[in-house]
Amino acid sequence: MGEERRRSPPFRTSRWGSCSKRQTARTMLRFIFARLLQSLVALAIISVVVFTLARATGDPLYLILPMSASQEDFDNARRYLGLDRPYVEQYLSFVGRAVTGDFGNSLRARRPVSDLIRERLPNSLKLAVFAMGVSLAMAFPLGVMAAVRKGTGLDRFAQVVSVLGQSLPTFWVAILLVEFVAGRLQWLPAGGIQGFTSYILPGFTLGWFVVAGLMRLLRSGMLEVLDSEYVKLARVKGVGEGRVIWLHALKNALIPVITFAGIYFAILVTTAIVVETVFAWPGLGRLAYEGISSRDFPVIQAVVLTTAAIVAVINLCVDCLYALIDPRIRYAR
Amino acid sequence: MKRASAMAQVFLLILVLLGAMLGLAPAGDAWAQPKTELTVALSSFATEVLDPPLGGHLVKYYLSMIFDYLVGTTPDGQPSREGGLATRWESSPDYKRWTFHLRKGVKFHNGDELTSEDVKFSILRNIGKRSTTGYAGPLRTLIADIETPAPDRIVIVSKEPTLIFPTYLSRSLSTEGMIVPKKYVESVGDDAFARKPIGSGPYRFVEQVTGSHVKLAAVDNHWRIGTPKFKTMTFRLVPEETTRIALLRRGEVDVADVSRERVPELERESFPIHYRREESILTMWWILGPDGPVAPTKDKRVREALNLAIDRAEIAQSIFGGKAEPASVPLGLSWSFKDVGFKPTSEMVYPYDPARARKLLADAGVGSGFNLDIYAYQLPGLPEGKTLAEAVAGYWEKLGIKTRLIPVDYPAFRKAWVDRATPGAVGYFNIANRDWIGAYALLEKMAYTPAKGNATVNDPEIDAMIAQVMRQTDREKINTLVRGVYTRLRSEHYGVPVVYLHSPYATSKSLGKWNVGSVMYDLFFDVLASGK
After folding, report:
1. Within the 209-268 window of chain A, which residues sit less than 8 Å (CB to CB) from chain B?
2. Which CATH number does A118-332 carry?
3. Does residue B104 belong to the interface with chain A, where contact is any CB pair within 8 Å?
4. How far is CA B106 from CA B86, B114, B398, in A?
5. Is B25 an 8 Å CB contact of chain A?
6. Where are the domains of chain A?
7. pTM assigned to the model
8. How far apart are CA A225 and CA A211, in angstroms?
9. Which one of A112, A133, B59, B89 is CB 3.0 to 4.6 Å from B18, fit for a cystine?
């Protein structure tokens, strides 16, 4: 897809220069509308899949009711929770309410699922923003400087960071940090949300993996760009090295990084189950885990749809950013 | 290079902005004053529902602080006239009318006075059809009427003579005896009540963040505990044990449930460990077929052989770190033994005797072995579940039995068990220990054929004894019958009792004495907080 975009036919290039701002805006709107439509179709398909798969895991009453529950208790609970209705009726009721933001009541917590998501989502977003900030702050200087000083000690150090970041399991890093940094050295809080310092360990654990990916992408992108003709020309024309690296080269190496960062931000928000469990962080990932382990259908459905919507929105933003940065993408649609 | 420094400034700015944004995150005021508050880290909050009929016994840890029970219970499980709303109770000679005299001057946290109307409303609500508590069903079947002749008196009328009301409505079992304010519940509705519960217990509800914590604040000079030692009590949900221990080391929590495996390490660091001794019995059984037991475990000799093949002492030591005791009576809830005067004899203890086990199998005609499925799953409070299944399978393999471990989650096993879908397959459970009434309730579900629910044992003699317990009002006769049930369960080898598990709780070094008690799913934090 990326290759296709880069090899857009030359006649399109001639149109870029002549298009007016109004045309550009119209094209962007058409592009956004098409993307939105695709996202809605995807969400509809996901709703069917998650509804079916959640029920395929079994009966939640075997977890909700005590060991001593009788058949009458089972029947009562099934009726009270609406699980005695036909599946089609349950699905239509779920979709009908979901479009208004009502995901029903949690079978386990007996509260509106939308309340639970409202409680948890901000925690996940804040942690993801922090983790992404840590990743960007570490990956940019390391990735760029590793490319600029290729083959030096700094480059090798960056490669070690990259290998460790991608190979060390998140749960292991998390446990290690809790055990030593929080428990033994007592430098930072071990878990829960208690202000800024409690973001550091989970944020670092989450961001560590992303650092490795971002840095490798930046390094390889920068290496390719630094070797290109226009960079050589800039140097020949006497442009300062700092300006060449951080302005001319970095800008063109950013496109894959933006895509990667966008996807990873969505992943950080929605799938930080291990980190949220280890650090006792009441986020969306833990809510999903609790929902799955207790077969809480409304929670599973709501969390999956919410995370799918988040991914769709982030992808849409990334696509728009792409289209803004690179007009070939906008017109290729 | 000027540009480079500009970029560096941008990154710094990003970090500063992040810090500023996250500064808006909820502050940890809940844990700011450890001297006046008790913080408890638990691995699970179960349902996290703060409403007695929906929370059930699994949330008694914190509900017992918010609500009072009709009948109190001492930490060692005995009915208490000091610990509940009823200061005394008596039955009519035919055991069909039970009168409870209520404590005067008790107020709910919103200032309303607690009366017999609240008690009646609460009991009916707790045993209603939406209730998911363990004993709502039997109470619903038994209760004919509830009368409120005076604000401080309530009469529960039974359809049958019974002794169970005081215990079933006490702190020793589930949450059916918890009292809520009628007016408040009726005015705000069930859902709003569950989100902002009001009780009459020694601690009032302050806040709940699901997946994070429940915070309570002490009521001044409550009749149960006097002037409280802790102004606030916070229950933090911390699923990962390493994190709970780190919080304990940092002094952020005062009590944490820990695994048996981590106890030696904590003891080396001088953290006090409090045990709930024999908190549960880990027992295995064979799933019945639609018409009862199936071959080959239908044969008593095979059942005995499977018991003799297991080295319980080795299991207690190697899998449970020595924090367990060998068990010898199937479904033998040991906290009830003293109530009914039952003491397992030395002959009842299963020796580890593989040679005799082989002989018994040969006598039963299955000396060359047979196929046996064993479900392997994790259970709350039993991380060692799958290891146990593997170990037992290993012992049975030595007899020539071809075992097959079926890894599933517990609900999948429970469905197969209740539906009798895989007759003869083996399952297990760490059954919470309880007093004689609780033990009777369990036996009625698991060993009484007409109950149909979770039938695990199918034996006409046991059925007859349990049926008599139901109708009996003479306590001595009840004790004899329950002793008879236990003896029969053991002599017929109806299951494989493995070990009694001790559950450890680590506390901060400054917490002091704490009687964790021996009541199902209750840790008596109010006794710990008591200023009396």
Report:
1. 240-243, 245-247
2. 1.10.3720.10
3. no
4. 11, 6, 63
5. yes
6. 118-332
7. 0.82
8. 21
9. A133
